[in-house]
Amino acid sequence: MQKSRAFMFLLAFCWFAFQAAPLSAQEEWDEWDFGAMDLYARGDQTITISLGISLPTVFLDHQGGTLHHNFSPPVGGAGSITYTHFLGSNFFLGGEIGVSFSHTVGRNTLFIIPIGLQAGWQFLLGRFEFPLSLTFGIAPQRYLDATYTGMFLRAGASAFYRFSPDWSFGVNLGWNWYPQRPNEYNTRPRDMNVHANILGITISARYHF
């Protein structure tokens, strides 16, 4: 008899817990909706996975003249993994590693692996989030048998929709500047210096924790 009572008590407890779960989840979402500006606090973190395309745009020589970059088709690929740590409700710091590639007319491929530190500011509007960021670092590059490692700088703007407390999805625009100065290593003449500007357009999934 005692076992039967214990079983009935456990069954009743599970039933009430199951009934209360949707209510507590709804309360969590309601709190999230009405407290959107307090979504982020010091110590919050995100990991973002992005995939998309890269578009070579303006290439400049050492005198500021425009160069024909010979990429065809003019659309390459890009991807990255980004970690961010919030120092407050809007300001964040982080790091990123990515890869991009573009094909030339001769069907050769230029690979770039940007690795950098990131700082940014995020604006919130309901469930929509708009991060603005600046990323600076190094970018190992390879084309055929030639390799080069230089700096890169990216100005980025994104728009995300907070699908759930743990996930948001969005789109990113990034203007990448890759200066190549091989004469610094005394291996090529100064007129081989190039300033490459590449636009990146990616879609992202961002995990919040």
Brief descriptors of the model:
single chain, Porin, elongated, 209 residues, alpha+beta, 10-stranded antiparallel β-sheet
Write up this protein.
The structure is a single chain. With 209 residues, the protein is α+β, with helices and mostly antiparallel strands. The protein folds into 2 domains: 1-34; 40-208, Beta Barrel (Porin), CATH 2.40.160. The chain is 16% helix and 57% strand. It contains 1 helix and 10 strands; from the N terminus they run αββββββββββ. The chain has one helix at 2-34, and strands spanning 45-60, 66-67, 76-86, 91-103, 109-112, 115-125, 128-143, 146-162, 167-180, 194-208. Strands 1, 2, 3, 4, 5, 6, 7, 8, 9 and 10 form a 10-stranded antiparallel beta sheet that branches.
At a glance:
The protein is of the alpha+beta class and 209 residues long. It has two domains: 1-34; 40-208, Beta Barrel (Porin).
* Overall number of domains: 2
CATH class of the largest domain: Mainly Beta
Approximate strand percentage: over 45%
* Low-pLDDT sequence parts: 13-27
Global outline: elongated
Largest β-sheet summary: 10 strands, antiparallel
Structural class: alpha+beta
Count the DSSP helices.
1
Q: How do the helices and strands follow one another from N- to C-terminus? A: HEEEEEEEEEE
Number of DSSP strands?
Answer: 10
Question: What is the CATH fold-level name of the largest domain?
Answer: Porin
Walk me through the topology.
Layout: H1 2-34, E1 45-60, E2 66-67, E3 76-86, E4 91-103, E5 109-112, E6 115-125, E7 128-143, E8 146-162, E9 167-180, E10 194-208
Antiparallel strand pairs: 1-2, 1-3, 1-10, 3-4, 4-5, 4-6, 5-7, 6-7, 7-8, 8-9, 9-10
